[in-house]
Amino acid sequence: MTSADLAALSPILVLGGLCIAVMLTIAARRDHATIAALSILSCLATMAALPLAASVVPRTVTGLLIVDRYALFYMGLQLAATAVVMALSFEYLQMHFQEHEEFEEFYVLLLLATFGGVIMVASGHFVSFFLGLELIGVSLYSLIGYLRTRRGPLEAAVKYLVLSGASSAFLLFGMALMYFQAGTMAFRELTSSFSAQTEAPALWLAGFLLILVGMGFKIGIVPFHLWIPDVYQGAPAPITAYVATVSKAAVFALLLRFIEDLQALQLGGLGVLFGMLAAASMFAGNVLALLQDNVKRLLAYSSIAHFGYLLVALLAGGPLAAEAVAFYLVAYFVTTLGAFGVVTVLSHEARDADSIEDYQGLFWTRPWLAGTFMLMLLSLAGIPVTAGFVGKFYAIAAGVNSGLWLLVVLLVVNSAIGVYYYLRLIVTMVDTPAVRAAEVPGWRTMRVEWTVVVPLSLVTFLLLWLGLYPEPFIRLIQASRF
Fold first, then answer.
1. In which element (H, E) is residue 113 found?
2. Contact, 389 vs 383, CB < 8 A?
3. In the prediction, which pLDDT does 433 show?
4. Is the omega angle on the peptide bond into residue 58 within 30 degrees of 0, that is, cis?
């Protein structure tokens, strides 16, 4: 391994070393504020290593990792989102745990999950892919069930554990079949054994489909979406934000690289299959969201629809698809973190603020929070001057450029359906409150400390900036393409 290889791996090495440093700090001195600050600084320090890695990329290191600008872009995105989740979690944990209880390990688990995501987006081999995936999965089991005195988080953790184990079994079986056929685990070499043939061998194709099942579970597309609403509802609000963003985006970024390296959309009817998954995810997500009275479940079904939109962009293929996916994911990150950030602030000791009634008249009692939540919902709906509008426009442009007219029409129709349930929640917030939840005995909303104000203000600024002046960010994305 050369010095250039070490420079390329510097973000991974820095984050791995800081995970150990945070664990040792906990062993030496337990203090919530210290560990939270150190964990956020760990994310920022890892982000500071990205320019060093960018100076020597693209490089393939040990055959397992492909460190290029594409990987570095998604590393930075995950690290920034993790820092926001940690900041939102600080007051949330203070409120939910008694003084004698300890919750510093929460931040270690977040760092380890992000470490797995960082490895995944740079993976070019089945071994690194699976190791990164399991690092995320094992950490999430504990994070989802971290509030161990509540039934909801424990139930969600068990469901995620069982279904994630089944997903891993599909992935391993699929990897075994593809390795048996191709004799290699490197993505770029998996099609070399039949490059001269017109059709993929049956075993190879079966392996690919099994891997798609496993990855479909992780990103929550139809028909592998059944865990999404229950886990979103049961998990602590900050962890719901993390699952919806960092966890799912790491898998989707890897899926895009995997399909690009294998040229999978050019093989047989795989393009048609992805189109069917996209259409089913869009319709199922939006239609089921119409029926929800639980805010976290509504956002869960909304996320299913959004990953259907992302599949339309992915199907377009080529550089424009990579650009569309990257920008859409950034807009989705900003919007989802802001939405669940508001849910986190309004949560109280007994439960999260996940009922629509909890938001009735919010505009008249907490106008700043209500305004932030409204902007996030408008962005999810794809209303102009928000990042979500530009993201959807990018996805539509990619689809039109590739002649995916049916999917583009379905995307537009489903976006119109989605406007209804977003506006329903907005109307609830501006409705005159008959009885505000804050007035009910036993309800105590979380104090809006600077650890909440700063991240929410940041994501709100980014949402408007990306909606009004996206050109600088688009240039950054274009420089980070394959």
1. helix 105-121
2. yes
3. 62
4. yes
